[in-house]
Amino acid sequence: MDIMEGLLTRRSIRKFENKPVPEAMVKQILEAAMMAPSAGNAQPWRFIVVNDRKKLDGMAGIHVHMKMVTQTALGIIVCADLSKEKFPGYWVQDCSAAMQNLLLAVHGLGLGAVWTGIHPVEERLKAFKEMFNLPEHVIPLGFAPIGWPAQQLKSESRFQDDRIHYNTY
């Protein structure tokens, strides 16, 4: 799949087959995530690979939009280590770029995923910090349940001319 096809066909997958994801694929996904741009090349991201069934099932109870996690083989939490920031506050952009790379890599490998947000919802932040024993300076941005898709979603163009402005609003 070429890059444009990947960008135009990636969809959020919320239904998964009961099949393991090979460790080599997980490494490829993380390598792609770490190739994201970051402010000052600080690369403040940290990743928690969650493949413990009890933890995955427990996550469904702390986030209303994470019920699908009970079907997945694994998931990855994208976090920011604030002690690694060169330009304070840019961690959200840095980690969002890493998450998007992660999602595209998942799609390119024939897997499925969905970005479930954690930051900036205080209850979610607190719950994830506790469940995963995160230090004070590490902030979870989002979680991506990952697995073999059990659904095929049609991609339709979202291009809208009225959203584009040239040289001024």
Summarize the structure.
The protein is 31% helix and 17% strand. It has 169 residues and is α+β, with helices and mostly antiparallel strands. Strands 1, 2, 3, 4 and 5 form a five-stranded antiparallel beta sheet that branches.
Describe the fold and architecture.
The protein has helices spanning 3-9, 23-33, 53-59, 91-108, 122-131, and strands at residues 45-50, 74-81, 112-113, 116-117, 138-147. It is α+β, with helices and mostly antiparallel strands. It has one domain (14-151): NADH Oxidase (3-Layer(aba) Sandwich). Strands 1, 2, 3, 4 and 5 form a 5-stranded antiparallel β-sheet that branches. The N and C termini lie far apart (35 Å). The relative contact order is 0.23.
Which key phrases capture this entry?
single chain; 169 residues; alpha+beta; NADH Oxidase; five-stranded antiparallel sheet; 5 helices; 5 strands; 17% strand
Write the layout of secondary structure elements.
Blueprint lengths: L2 H7 L13 H11 L11 E6 L2 H7 L14 E8 L9 H18 L3 E2 L2 E2 L4 H10 L6 E10 L22
Antiparallel strand pairs: 1-2, 2-5, 3-5, 4-5
Helix pairs in contact: 2-4
InterPro entries: Nitroreductase, Nitroreductase-like, Nitroreductase/BluB
Protein name: Nitroreductase
Organism: Pseudodesulfovibrio nedwellii
